[in-house]
Amino acid sequence: MTRRTLKLGLVTMGAGGPGQHNRWLDPDIPADASVNIRWYIEQVRKAEAAKFDFVFIVDSQFITKDSPPHYLNRLEPLTLLSALATATSHIGLVGTLTTSFNSPFNLARRLASLDLISGGRAGWNVVTSGDPGAAGNFGLDEHYDYETRYGRAFEYIDVVQGLWRSYEDDAFPRDRETGVFLDPAKLHALNHKGKYFSVTGPLNLQRSPQGQPVIFQAGDSDHGRNLGAQTADAIFTHSASIEDGRAFKQDITRRAVAAGRGADDVLILPGVSIYVGDTDEDARRIETEYRRADHSFEQALGELGRSFGWHDFRQYDLDAPFPAETLEHARRSFFTQAQRIVELARKDDLTLRQTVEVLSASRGSPFVGSAETVANEIIRWFEGGALDGLNVMLGHPDQFDRFLNEVVPILQARGVYRSEYEDTTLRGNLGLPKPANIRAEAPASPTARREEPALAVS
Amino acid sequence: MTRRTLKLGLVTMGAGGPGQHNRWLDPDIPADASVNIRWYIEQVRKAEAAKFDFVFIVDSQFITKDSPPHYLNRLEPLTLLSALATATSHIGLVGTLTTSFNSPFNLARRLASLDLISGGRAGWNVVTSGDPGAAGNFGLDEHYDYETRYGRAFEYIDVVQGLWRSYEDDAFPRDRETGVFLDPAKLHALNHKGKYFSVTGPLNLQRSPQGQPVIFQAGDSDHGRNLGAQTADAIFTHSASIEDGRAFKQDITRRAVAAGRGADDVLILPGVSIYVGDTDEDARRIETEYRRADHSFEQALGELGRSFGWHDFRQYDLDAPFPAETLEHARRSFFTQAQRIVELARKDDLTLRQTVEVLSASRGSPFVGSAETVANEIIRWFEGGALDGLNVMLGHPDQFDRFLNEVVPILQARGVYRSEYEDTTLRGNLGLPKPANIRAEAPASPTARREEPALAVS
Q1: What is the complex's ipTM, to 2 decimals?
Q2: B7-281+364-451 fold
Q3: In sequence order, which ranges of B164-279 are alpha helices (DSSP H)?
Q4: Which of A163, A260, B81, B254 could disulfide-link to B93, CB 3.0 to 4.6 Å?
Q5: Contacts of residue B139 in chain A, CB cutoff 8 Å?
Q6: Is B59 annotated as a binding residue?
């Protein structure tokens, strides 16, 4: 296989995102950007003009009056991406959808529908939801525990991919001469009965031009990494340094190979903020200014709660040692992240105030400088085996424009990044193979084995 | 309130629909129309150019190899309508979504999202699903019984509308001077705990320009009629004659008034096929030809099974009396419809073959003739109190064009139908009031009462 080029995704949550509570104050951004379809279309068309691989939509399902602005009011990923599908032509459409609070049949069907509507550009970012409050919106007294969340996720992906194999590629002759619409031998029920799910199938949708939506994954715990290594086509992560990135990529590759996959089967795509200035110093000044404007200490204190099930840290003495007992609140939330924060505070004997400050400072981007500096750094990470591409976190429009107009042309001139789309599908542009047709598949996975003896439904 | 004008909706399932198994054979229609977004956009833009109120998407969740073509492979309504939202500007977007197999929080959120994306054009056709096979796709051993299906539906609508009232109209000042994004006193949790659902809320989406999506309903059983009369803004029905239509409208009005609603609160919109010819005789010839081409006796026999949970009637002697014992299979399906078929056969001692033939013949449209004849008949029904508008079932493209180009101008010239949209929202065009802001509401409904004491979530 020829060397892949660098992949680029755009992560947008309207105006703002983690650490960007005040982004809506910027007069260059509509204050209602998170529910403004025109704004989304404008940003995504810019990314498409620059030949980005995909736009990536994050999600959440629970709010309180204390939630950050970008949580309070946001378009649902599936409806948003479907609306973007008819306003774009080549860019991939990746939505965050939780395995904890959607039925697998509906999710499989809606993603397959988006995939057909977009001509093979759909992607699914698989999450298990780290917000315990969301459970109450779905009839649960409390959120699933960690083992259950991931047990469900593994089985869930298996079910969804099984449903996506309901029809073989050539199931619909639609031959007007012979009057044959469907070849019934090419329709397969799933008849899945597992620990968590029971789904008969088949799905009432043909395969898309890319075979199946592309699977993204973002969890960073041990189970999360296994889920990504075993099932995902691409992983959305965070890397503070080239060494971090390389270690993460090696860890995922090791887990993927151990699961019988190829070393190149999983793309590693860290999410990054990028700051471009006239000079390196100018860029650092811009970063400092934007980050200072983006959120206050109070807001950072609030956002600290996210990994701890949105536990309210305002109740503690800011100048007392970090309250490590709060880790208990993270049990059904982002426990791995919370654990790292508690460790960090313990190691250096930090107060709560210091912990918030250190975490804010650690958000500093490794990609800050003149266009030349940023391009060089991206290429160094890419060629150094620390990433396969970047998920560019949409910042200030002016900065996004500078990245597109100044950095991207350098990446293209160096032959690292495309100047034209190679394909019309997301899978094709990412350089991923189209999943084999059901009949051509070796019975390698449990799902494939389960499907082999299944007869066409009667 | 001034007299409303006639409302028009377009019902489309790609190529084909009930009784239209062979529509895909027509060379003027793409054979893959049911999954062809370009075809949908083309039809819906035609309807929008003719100032139709809405496009209406039907749905189903279960197939076998014997399912009619339009069931086998179809885009999911929410994703399809979201894709149509950005390809249109004024037409309403009404999707069929079942209360039996969606969680109310996800459904409320996705419809609210579509409503915002489209600028206030979303509608929800509430169904409880009459296909027992669908249950197996959602982890159930069998479908809910009739009482449970409707018990859930009543509570479900209450929950969804409650979630749609999470924010007051002016909850988001987004004031850059004062830095106030949200007025937290205008965010309300739902805290619903009912017989079937437990949903805390609030929903993470602001109200749309039309306040809430418009509620459509289509069930025709006793509980179905009550559900429509008590909760719906519009009812999709079938009427064979002006007398039928008038009786249905009076029945719904009576039930609505008994539930404390106004006599004009529920629009009655029968679904109709329309055949336009150069003369009345020419139109009757066209109808006969199309109906003959649309399905064979074998296909009509298969479709008879729909009301009986897709029971296979091919196993019975065609020339023996209609097998009335099959009614048992309709218990968790469209029981009222099945009951009517059994009654029909019993009354006239029909064989199975005769029953299929009589049912096929009864599909004859009351709106067949020259453009003048069809327009006159529509006006007669409208002014005679038998309908508030029509759901035009998309037939052959040539016939749709004739309706748009020949019949609609007559309706406009007679002042019965609009020449320009009155509003940008579906609710506005249908002449329905915008649901009151939460604070302005009298605590009339159980939901409103439940919400009054609810505090802003903490």
Answers
A1: 0.93
A2: TIM Barrel (3.20.20)
A3: 222-231, 242-258
A4: B81
A5: 103, 197-199
A6: yes
